[in-house]
């Protein structure tokens, strides 16, 4: 069941008995990272305010310690970070439309919160921070694929706040002994992505709708395209960045599949996966802040950290739909 990735074959013992911190470790991406770190023998502290993440997402292991707190609380961050030499900073608010409604909270968590994590890391002697950045930094620039040298054009408060985090990551790596890297994620999907939020990712939202016997709702005409990336690829990139011997100097790299599909193609593929071809998509007006097309160049990621995707779209989508079928059946 699901995608079986041989993490030990990919990463060996490089993280065995290392003390690491995962902020947002109860969330979608963070919990997959925690699960893999434990499988590789690391000792993991999870720092999460549980506003979106779930304790149930964590593996049951004596190698995992959960500390509840917010990235706006520096004493709590300090407590969680003590003794850790690697920090995976995944904690964030992640909805583009919600950020349009509530921009200040997005700056507070994604911008100021990242500065707080960096500042505590500087004072506690952390060796490297891996920051979960966002491809939304590119905005609606028409050129494809997106290359890291392109000018940033954030179109939403979410994108702007995540970009602020990138800039601080680069600045701290330039000014202090700490090393860091920003990984710009492109449309991550997989098991544990919350289907019940009003701001769910499109694959999570489509799964809930189709399994309820309703037609998937597409904003816009369905021609928008995305570089959909299975979550194991993101975990792999984080581990590569954590164990790279060379300094990474706060650089920014794209993490994606390197292929794109339209939202309409996605809907058709999911209707096939769930065996509901009669539920034809319905359409609604496009949302403010959304971009038309997204596709990543992976050349810099290959050169800097040796990243290549390890799970393709079709395999990842099949595993994800299987997980939603089971999870939503359980209520």
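Q: What amino acid sequence fits the structure above?
A:
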């Amino acid at each position: 069941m699901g995608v079986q990735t041989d993490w030990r074959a990919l990463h060996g013992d490089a993280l065995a008995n290392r003390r690491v911190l995962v902020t947002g470790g109860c969330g979608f991406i963070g919990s997959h990272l925690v699960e893999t770190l434990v499988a590789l023998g690391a000792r993991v502290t999870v720092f999460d305010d549980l506003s979106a993440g779930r304790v149930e997402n964590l593996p049951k292991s004596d190698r995992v310690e959960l500390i509840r707190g917010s990235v706006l609380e520096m004493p709590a961050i300090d407590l969680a970070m003590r003794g850790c030499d690697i920090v995976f900073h995944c904690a964030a608010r992640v909805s583009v439309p919600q950020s349009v409604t509530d921009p200040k909270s997005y700056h507070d968590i994604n911008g100021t919160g990242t500065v707080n994590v960096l500042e505590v890391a500087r004072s506690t002697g952390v060796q490297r921070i891996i920051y979960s950045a966002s491809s939304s930094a590119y905005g609606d620039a028409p050129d494809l694929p997106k290359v890291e040298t392109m000018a940033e054009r954030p179109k939403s408060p979410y994108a702007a706040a995540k970009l602020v985090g990138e800039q601080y990551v680069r600045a701290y790596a330039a000014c202090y002994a700490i090393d860091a890297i920003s990984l710009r994620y492109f449309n991550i999907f997989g098991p544990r992505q919350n289907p019940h939020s009003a701001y769910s990712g499109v694959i999570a939202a489509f799964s809930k709708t189709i399994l309820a016997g309703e037609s998937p709702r597409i904003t816009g005409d369905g021609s928008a395209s995305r570089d959909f990336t299975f979550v194991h690829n993101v975990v792999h990139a984080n581990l590569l960045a954590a164990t790279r011997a060379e300094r990474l100097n706060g650089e920014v790299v794209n993490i994606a599949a390197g292929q794109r599909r339209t939202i309409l193609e996605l809907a058709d593929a999911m209707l096939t996966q769930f065996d509901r071809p009669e539920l034809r998509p319905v359409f609604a007006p496009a949302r403010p802040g959304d971009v038309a097309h997204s596709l990543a160049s992976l050349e810099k990621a290959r050169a800097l950290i040796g990243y290549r995707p390890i799970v393709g779209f079709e395999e990842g989508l099949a595993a994800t739909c299987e997980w939603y079928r089971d999870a939503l059946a359980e209520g």
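Q: And what stands out in the fold?
A: The two ends are 20 Å apart (CA to CA).
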